[in-house]
Amino acid sequence: MWSEYRSLDGIVKFQRELAHTLGLELGLYKYMNLVVKIPFWESCSPDFATQIILNLAVRVYLPDDYVVRKGDSGDEMLMINRGVCELSDPIKA
Hints:
Residues 40-87 form the Cyclic nucleotide-binding domain. The chain is mostly helical. The protein has helices at residues 2-5, 11-17, 20-36, 46-54.
C-alpha cells in the first residue's frame, strides 16, 4: 500500500486524485459518522458537520508514538478514527 499510494491506507492520495466534488463527497461519507458521534456535535446541523469535516486534517500515528504529552498546550481537537490510543502517566524519576 505504501509503495503505490504513499499512505498507510491508500485513501489520502486516492481521494486527492478524484474530481474535487467527488473527493469532497468521499470525505463527507468517510467522516460524517465520526463527527456526529461526538456528544456535543450530535445535534448539529448537516451544514455545520460538513464544515467540520472539510477542515479535518488526517494524521497517522504508529505504535509508541506520542500524540500529546502532559503539560502541552493545545489548540486542536483530536479524534480517533481507527485504532486505539493509550493514556498513561509520565514516568516519575
